[in-house]
Amino acid sequence: MDWFETGWGLSLIVFLPMAGAALVLLMPRKQERAAKFTALAFAFASFAGSVYAAFTFELGSSSQFQLGTDLSWISAIGSRFHIGIDGISLPLLVLSTLMTLLCIIYSWNHWPEPHNPKAFLVLMLILATGMNGTFVALDLVLFFIFFELVLLPMYFMIGIWGDRTKIRLPGFKKEVETRLYASIKFFLFTLFGSAFMLLGFLALYFKSDPHTFDMIALAEAGRAGAFAGAFGGWVFAALFLGFAVKVPMWPLHTWLPDAHTAAPTVGSVLLAAILLKLGSYGFIRISLPILPEQAQQWAPAIAILAVIAIIYGSLACLAQTDMKRLIAFSSVGHMGFVMLGIATLTDVGINAAVIGMVAHGLITGLLFFLAGSMQHRYHTREMSRLGGNMKLMPVLGGLLGFTAMASLGLPGLAGFWGEFMALLGAFNPLDGLSLTVFRTAMVIGAIGTVLTAGYLLWMLQKVNLGEPKEEWTSKQWHDADRFELAAWIPLVIAIFAVGVFPKIIFGATDGAVVELIRSAFGG
Amino acid sequence: MFDYHALAPELILGVTLLAVLAVDLVLPDRLKYLAGVTALVGMVAAVFPLLTMAFCDSIAGCVDGGTRSMFGGSYVVDDFALVLKALFLVSGVVSLLLSVGYLESDDYYQGEFYFLILASVTGAVVMASARDLITIFIGLELVSAPAFLLAGWRKGDLRGNEASLKFFLTGVLATAVMLFGMSLVYGLTGEITFAGIASQSAALDLGPEPAFVMGVVFVLIGFAFKVSAVPFHFWAPDTYQGAPIPVAAYLSVGSKAAGFVGLLVICYQAFAAVPEVWGPILWILAAASMTVGNLGALKQTNIVRLLGYSSIAHGGFILVPFAMAASYDSVGLSDAFFGSITYLLIYAFMNLGAFAVVIVGAAKAKSGEIADWAGMARYAPATAGLLAMFFFALAGIPPLAGWFAKFVMFRSVIGVFESGWAIAIAVIAAVNAVIALYYYARIVKSVYMDDVPIAVPQAEAAAIRTAPSLVLAIAITAAVVVVVGFFPQVLAFFGEAARGF
């Protein structure tokens, strides 16, 4: 299929969900079935496209951008519709289309209040276009548009379908519903970061000669030292703000626990599985290649923030009483490992980061699915009230046990590689980076893995084991239904597959990562 | 010599003005809306000569496609003027579409309303071509004087009277200050045309001359009143709230844009030799307008008043590209020009659309208070959806058109990133973009996420029909906001055309 390889394929993967959203929007609200099938069909087509792209992708030259195109878009500002994928973006693109598809399957008869599947599906599909687009964009303006496109749908998802529990904020007299607080906080934090990111993009444009927004051309210019000195420092700081909020890195993470906890199940899943990756992907795709010199200067600071996030995330987890909030804080810790991997600026570290991103997407996505299904049944997320879940619902409980094991980095499951290799990379960072800082980071990070195991086992003990409380024993329990299983089993398989055979990911990423490190840092 | 082709839009508008008056005299009460239709037809007709001028090269028998200069350089029709005239006419047409249904529901005379709005648009069209002090002054007054009356159109309404009076008094003060400034400039240079003032001020080295600086400052202050830049903005929220909503829409787009165009032309042409005088002033006006406008909007409970503050803030964003004028080279100057014009074009459509939806929403909720709009998505999903769309467009969230406006604005200041002042204003603008999101999102939150107040009769509100002209206005603006969001080149093309000035 020649047409697929000349950019049409990727464009379809990106814009099919958007087309689906438009179609669903035109359907009458009563036609829920039609809307669901349309959404499913478009999400599936997008997923199938990404799988086809993965098989068409030439693994031998994974450092090259493939299947892309470069068309005129906004000539007035010199921005082009330039897309393509390399070994780093390919796994993330597949992850993104897969998660969208699974979320639609899961939602099939799990509609959060106030129902309205039509609107929910429209938002989910728009979100998918934003996520897929970010991973294929090779033009900074295009990247910015896709990066921001995810904000609106997620804002509405959290704000309309989110948690209605009331909380009292410090300094306010009136109580406010969690969903309202969390949605605007998410929106404002990310917009704040990305406004500065945009300034950074523009600065790069004007400093490059000839002026361009093209990532590949900018990376070449960056290698040649076009952005050296204080200028580059400021630009790196601006981009850092944009990406670090999204990752989120400590201390910019405070929106995350609120957003994750308040979001409806599917929102939490997509937020954790994909949206956080947009930030770390931005570091790998934009910050490192275009500003290699500044990346080296900033690397120790990023490593320090990353280990703070690991320890802080773990300790915060141990203090949680709310199951979903615990999983949310665990994301802070896991993304800390990803950022530690990136900060090492070595091929081991960045490979670790990419596989860590994929694994975190699969595992935490599944954890949020499970937490959502449990909340749906228990109507509470308070761990002190839960217990004996294994006895009430063996399948759900078993899956929760499995996923928690994967999350704590059990060898043989997907979570292991990202953590282990990030630490390995920190042992031996890029020449010229401070060994003291990175080896200390490694030791602290290793302690973090123990804490991670600690809080996850603690959660399992509270939720899964023991005898069910009296308030639950008299009720009828429905274990996982077929829609839930249909959404979860692919994830379980993927977690096994990546764990046992990490070459699925490394096969694609390694060539691209080695080339990135070689060209940017000469290492 | 008269170039009738170049003057055709103004001539058509003039004839239509008379026609509207005449038609209004003979029509019976129930057919008064036909006066509005006459005005509408006139404005649409006036667009055609603009098109034939713009595409003169490809029309057989059309002479001279380039710049048309008349009356000794006092009146110039170039690509810049064509783009701006088209913008004024389109925003006039949309404002009229907003008015027709709105006025029907009120108990006041309609005829003079259409006459006044048409007169104001004519003034704006004249301003786009004005290249001397007197013509631009007359144009500006022709824009403003009918607007004073329009603001107080609801004679029986106290707020309407206050709106009009406040607007009138500050407007007259601004005019006086501006005239004083103009007389100083004329006195020192002995020239009326902008080109003459520029060359004389350069030749006589008037930059450091205090009287000349004072003249420039006074002229700027006059325009600052017209575009409601902080600290000359006090009239705007009161006037917007008191005026009929379509008039507020027109004030915030048509007459405001006219003020900006005058400011642009006078700064870049007449005062081209002394950017170091007006650049810093505009820097302060821009920073203050963005910040005060946004902070003021945060606390508003009335939606039209909120849009008033938001339009002050947007005025600040439009001024940002000017702010660094003193440090631009010629490419940067042209980029800045492009940035302001493109922002203005996009802003016009977003804001008119927002006002149009506000008219619909206010009719359904029977109130302009944001709290009363709570839960509108429940009983009027289409209105709520469009409201969210226009407000997020104003906030600059992709993929709606507003992002491109913000983008070109940032682009023009980052172009001179060596200057700390440029970075400072860029950072102020970035922070303001985030603040603005908060109050736009607050309305969307209310409409989508809050519960419907018990007092609102939902079924009744849902059944309220929207006038077809209003639907048309919303359709036009919504289409532009969406299409430009994905393909900004559509409007950027016009911004580019205006650049060669």
Task: Explain how this protein is built.
The complex is a heterodimer of chains A (523) and B (501). With 523 residues, chain A is mainly α. Chain A has one domain. In chain A, 73% of the residues lie in helices and 4% in strands. Chain A has 21 helices and four strands. In chain A, the strands form two sheets. Chain A has a two-stranded antiparallel ribbon. In chain A, strands 3-4 form a two-stranded antiparallel sheet. In chain A, helix 7 crosses helix 10, helix 11 runs antiparallel to helix 14 (347-378) and helix 14 (347-378) runs antiparallel to helix 20 (482-500). The longest helix of chain A has 32 residues, at 347-378. Chain A starts with a helix and ends with a helix. With 501 residues, chain B is an all-alpha fold. Chain B has a domain at 274-501.
Helix and strand layout, with pairings?
The complex is a heterodimer of chains A (523) and B (501).
Chain A: H1 2-26, H2 32-56, E1 66-74, E2 79-85, H3 89-107, H4 117-136, H5 140-149, H6 151-161, E3 166-168, E4 175-177, H7 178-207, H8 215-223, H9 229-246, H10 255-262, H11 265-290, H12 292-318, H13 323-343, H14 347-378, H15 389-392, H16 394-407, H17 415-427, H18 435-463, H19 470-473, H20 482-500, H21 503-521
Helix pairs in contact in A: 1-2, 1-4, 2-3, 2-4, 3-4, 3-11, 3-14, 3-20, 4-5, 4-6, 4-11, 5-7, 6-7, 7-9, 7-10, 8-11, 9-11, 10-11, 10-13, 11-13, 11-14, 12-13, 12-18, 13-14, 13-17, 13-18, 14-16, 14-17, 14-20, 14-21, 16-18, 17-18
Chain B: H1 4-26, H2 33-54, E1 68-70, E2 75-77, H3 79-104, H4 111-129, H5 133-151, H6 158-189, H7 194-203, H8 210-226, H9 235-242, H10 245-270, H11 275-298, H12 303-323, H13 330-365, H14 376-379, H15 381-395, H16 402-414, H17 420-449, H18 458-463, H19 468-486, H20 489-499
Helix pairs in contact in B: 1-2, 1-4, 2-3, 2-4, 3-4, 3-10, 3-13, 3-19, 3-20, 4-5, 4-10, 5-6, 5-10, 6-7, 6-8, 6-9, 8-10, 8-11, 9-10, 9-12, 10-12, 10-13, 11-12, 11-17, 12-13, 12-16, 12-17, 13-15, 13-16, 13-19, 13-20, 15-17, 16-17
